[in-house]
Write a structure and sequence with these properties.
The protein is about 20% helix and about 35% strand. The chain contains 2 helices and 7 strands.
Length: about 160
């Protein structure tokens, strides 16, 4: 059986160090509604999007310029039956240099087609990773969810 975890990959001209920095700037590509540290081993942060989704992540692996892994400690979705579907899954960012390009491989280990949220969640991750994160890396400006009661400015590096 093939690996069914959600995975997406893209390549950029920037260095692995620049990519690593952008991934760790979670407020710049995923959401400005992040509370807590997002760039050091052991950091924990929370995310929420309106009343639809909230989760708590812990950074469990950091290899500068190469890899970052988050573990989902807690999760809630208001649109599916199993509110805790992501709990104990892992989100992995692998960075590698191929010639003059840097490859970014995102995998949500445990987000599989059997999950009720698979279609919605994989589409959302695809947009955040291939759209917002890639844009943050290549232009310095991502397209994260804005703060609900913020000033409406976009986050940048």
């Amino acid at each position: 059986m093939t690996n069914q975890n959600f995975t997406t990959t893209f390549s950029v001209d920037q260095t692995p160090e620049e990519v690593f920095k952008a991934i760790n700037h979670v407020r710049g590509w995923w959401s400005e509604e992040i509370e807590g540290g997002t760039d050091k081993l052991g950091d924990e942060f929370t995310y929420h999007y309106k009343d639809a989704h909230r989760c708590k992540m812990k950074i469990t692996e950091v290899i500068p310029g190469k890899k970052i892994v988050w573990r989902v400690l807690d999760n809630y979705f208001n649109f599916i039956e199993d509110k805790n579907e992501w709990v104990d899954t892992e989100i992995s960012f692998e960075i590698s240099r191929k010639g003059n390009k840097t490859d970014v491989r995102f995998t949500h280990v445990g987000l599989v087609p059997g999950y009720e949220c698979f279609d919605v969640c994989s589409n959302a991750w695809g947009s955040y990773i291939n759209g917002s994160l890639r844009s943050l890396i290549t232009t310095g400006e991502g397209k994260p969810n804005l703060k609900e009661k913020g000033n409406g400015e976009k986050a940048s590096l």
